[in-house]
Amino acid sequence: MPAKREHLRASRILLGTQTPVVHDLLELAVRRSGIEHGYLFSNSDYLAMIGQLLGQEAKREAVLHILQDWGIVTSEDVDLFSSFIPSRRRP
Description:
about 70% helix; mainly alpha; 6 helices
């Protein structure tokens, strides 16, 4: 599973937002119950609860987090997409 900073980076690049508490909620199950139980909390009810508590952007961020944990979205995907985003730095 990617580190929290990689989840936050992917959220910023792919969704344009970062909500650290979303990732904390998703990792809570892993810390409390062990890695094999973490996926039990990665279901539609848990995602709906995050959406109700924190909004739909947070729910999208939670889905992205799970896709990263499952290896569906990789750091290479994030790197590739980031190359299409114009730099925010001034010349």
